[in-house]
């Protein structure tokens, strides 16, 4: 091995050890604001799942340059800055962790993106008026709400209540015709019962990205549900079918657990 290769593999080992040091003792800690805040005081940057360029083509058809966008649970990911650089400049990003919000606000200002608004907020109780946003985007944040679930097939009542609080808040802050975009590893048969609950009048759209291990982008357009249901009925599908055919992946059967946080080797 050359000196360069030695140095590189040494750095990779250090990085892996550093990531490992951020693992909580128990999965339920992912629900704890203190865990995230302590983690973000040490961790500079971490991108859950994949970076923006891997799925931006699935987000952009749902967005306009003028869209008022809310990012939920931004963490220290570059998603918000990437959206800004891509021309979506009316951005508000929230997270439970004051440490990460302060860090992201400073980083954005240093890069000339001072127009982005950063706020400490709980996505289960959003501090925004009804109809404030044209798009709400989350990546891996809704998934956190499932971490203490016993089985993805029959979520516990506390998990269901928590997820519906988040969805109700998202639905509330969305303007008429606004869109909720959810980037996740969770398969439609686990997400559909939540996203398509009768209290939400949004339509649905789902697409996949990723090689081998597939991720999903769900797009729910407010006020579009009746039209989607009618279109599905016309095509002889039942009202709960998805409009885009899902690609089967050899990893699908391994994705049937919602405990991605264990499997993602963070
Ligand atoms: C799995 S990380 C995803 C981070 C980022 N979205 C990404 O794609 O890399 C989950 C993030 O959600 C935040 N979070 C967890 N619960 C939250 C809540 N109730 N409200 C707002 N943010 C929350 C955490 O602080 C963390 O930054």
Automatic annotation (TrEMBL):
Gene3D superfamilies listed in its UniProt record: Vaccinia Virus protein VP39
GO biological process assignments: methylation
Keyword hit for Ribonucleoprotein: no
Methyltransferase type domain sequence ranges: 71-181
Keyword Methyltransferase belongs to the record: yes
Matches recorded under Pfam families: Methyltransf_11
Amino acid composition bias (Basic and acidic residues), ranges on this chain: 244-258
Chain intervals for the UniProt region annotation (Disordered): 232-258
Catalytic reactions on record: N(6),N(6)-dimethyl-L-lysyl-[protein] + S-adenosyl-L-methionine = N(6),N(6),N(6)-trimethyl-L-lysyl-[protein] + S-adenosyl-L-homocysteine + H(+)
Alphabetic keyword roster: Methyltransferase, Phosphoprotein, S-adenosyl-L-methionine, Transferase
Domain of life: Eukaryota
MF annotations from Gene Ontology: S-adenosylmethionine-dependent methyltransferase activity
Family affiliation: Belongs to the methyltransferase superfamily.
Function text: Protein-lysine methyltransferase that efficiently catalyzes three successive methylations on 'Lys-36' in eukaryotic translation elongation factor 1 alpha (EEF1A1 or EEF1A2).
PANTHER family, sorted: EEF1A LYSINE METHYLTRANSFERASE 4, SAM-DEPENDENT METHYLTRANSFERASE SUPERFAMILY PROTEIN
UniProt name for this protein: EEF1A lysine methyltransferase 4
Record organism: Coccomyxa subellipsoidea (strain C-169) (Green microalga)
Lineage, broadest ranks: Eukaryota, Viridiplantae, Chlorophyta, core chlorophytes, Trebouxiophyceae
């Amino acid at each position: 091995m050359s000196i360069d290769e030695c140095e590189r593999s040494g750095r990779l080992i250090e990085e892996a050890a550093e990531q490992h040091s951020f693992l909580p003792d128990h999965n339920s800690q992912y629900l704890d604001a203190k865990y995230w805040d302590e983690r973000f005081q040490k961790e500079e940057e971490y991108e859950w799942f994949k970076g923006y360029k891997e799925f931006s083509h699935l987000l952009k058809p749902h967005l306009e340059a003028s869209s008022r966008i809310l990012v939920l649970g931004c963490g220290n990911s570059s998603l918000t800055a990437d959206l800004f650089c891509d021309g979506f400049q009316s951005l508000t990003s929230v997270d439970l962790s004051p440490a990460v919000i302060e860090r992201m606000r400073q980083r954005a200002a240093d890069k000339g993106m001072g127009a982005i608004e950063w706020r400490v907020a709980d996505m289960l109780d959003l501090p925004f008026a009804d109809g404030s946003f044209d798009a709400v985007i989350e990546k891996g944040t809704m998934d956190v709400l499932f971490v203490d679930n016993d089985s993805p097939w029959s979520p516990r009542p506390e998990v269901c209540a928590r997820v519906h609080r988040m969805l109700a808040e998202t639905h509330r802050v969305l303007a008429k015709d606004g869109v909720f975009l959810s980037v996740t590893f969770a398969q439609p048969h686990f997400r559909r019962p939540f996203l398509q609950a009768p209290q939400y009048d949004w339509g649905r759209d789902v697409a996949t990205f990723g090689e081998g291990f597939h991720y999903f982008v769900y797009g729910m357009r407010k006020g579009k549900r009746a039209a989607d249901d009618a279109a599905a009925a016309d095509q002889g599908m039942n009202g709960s079918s998805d409009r885009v055919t899902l690609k089967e992946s050899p990893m699908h059967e391994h994705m049937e657990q919602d405990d991605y946080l264990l499997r993602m080797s963070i």
